[in-house]
Write a structure and sequence with these properties.
Chromosome partitioning protein; 45% helix; AAA_dom; Rossmann fold; 12 helices; binds adenosine-5'-diphosphate; 8 strands; binds magnesium ion; 8-stranded mixed β-sheet; alpha/beta
């Protein structure tokens, strides 16, 4: 089971949007996929139109009030399920985070999912605090969205340093899948300049070739609580983009051997 951590230093850079659409693209590629919401703000639920605050989730599993299989929610795609934070009062987010980051809680929950899913996507809250750190300790791979803006290099440096630290101290097998430029606006010369600096400074494929453009459709989809709908009435380039990204990342996660490759001969 691959555990893909979607994390970044900054908020509002597209972590949840990427977790959802990429998770759906993994499911469409035949992977049994779970999107797990670790952000107590509940934006995965909101974006899916599942934001029923009364519905139990991760918080209730941690108190022992619910069993994990009972709080997994099915979606319209039979290969995709979601696990939301559950009943977390915005005033007690600290308590939720404390419970989630206590000892081996998160890795224990992930352990229970082993065998049930091929890919688990962990949608982290903004920042490099204890939740993101725990997720990196429990994960197998990390993907970090980055907006091409003047402070991008600094925030990228911070997450790369955290990934290095976690790898050195706790999780030697954690693999950086890459940095994905998100909400990219080709019309803005400053964005292009930042992107060029990044490509020059980080050769070797760290900055992924796929770029997520700034597109109103994402905003519209999360307002309507319907990324699945987005995938149905999607403008073709956007859906192809996530399907291609899913295929590329799966190739990096599980490189095909020569025998598996359906070559011409
Ligand atoms: P994060 O999880 O990093 O805080 P979100 O994915 O929730 O970021 O995105 C923040 C807001 O920006 C949301 O309203 C979302 O719909 C919108 N958004 C995300 N990605 C894009 C994009 N590529 N183009 C336009 N709007 C986007
Ligand atoms: Mg988010």
């Amino acid at each position: 089971m691959h555990i893909l951590v979607v994390a970044s230093q900054k908020g509002g850079v597209g972590k949840t949007t990427i977790s959802l659409n990429l998770g759906l693209a993994f499911a469409r590629a035949g992977q049994r996929t779970l999107i797990m919401e670790l952000d107590a703000q509940g934006s995965v639920g909101l974006s899916l139109g599942l934001a029923d605050r009364a519905r139990p989730g991760l918080a209730e599993v941690m108190t022992g009030a619910e069993a994990l299989p009972d709080v997994l929610q099915r979606t319209r795609d039979p290969q995709l399920q979601v696990l939301l934070v559950g009943r977390v009062d915005p005033a007690t987010v600290g308590g939720f985070e404390e419970a989630l980051t206590r000892g081996p809680v998160l890795s224990g929950i992930l352990g229970q999912l082993r065998g049930e899913f091929d890919v688990v996507v962990l949608d982290c809250p903004a920042g490099l605090g204890r939740v993101t750190t725990r997720a990196l300790e429990a994960g197998t791979h990390v993907l970090t969205p980055l907006q091409a803006e003047p402070l991008a290099l600094r925030s990228l440096g911070q997450i790369l340093a955290l990934v290095d630290r976690v790898r050195a101290e706790k999780n030697t097998s954690l693999t950086l899948l890459g940095v994905i430029l998100s909400m990219f606006d080709r019309q803005t010369p400053a964005s292009l300049e930042v992107a060029e600096t990044l490509w020059t400074k980080f050769p070797g494929g760290i900055i992924l070739d796929t770029i997520i453009p700034r597109d109103e459709t994402f905003l519209e989809a999360s307002l309507r609580g319907a990324p699945l709908l987005l995938m149905q009435k999607r403008p073709p380039p956007l859906s192809r983009l996530f399907d291609q990204l899913a295929t590329d990342l799966l190739d990096r996660i599980e490189p095909k051997t020569a025998e598996e490759d359906d070559g011409p001969i």
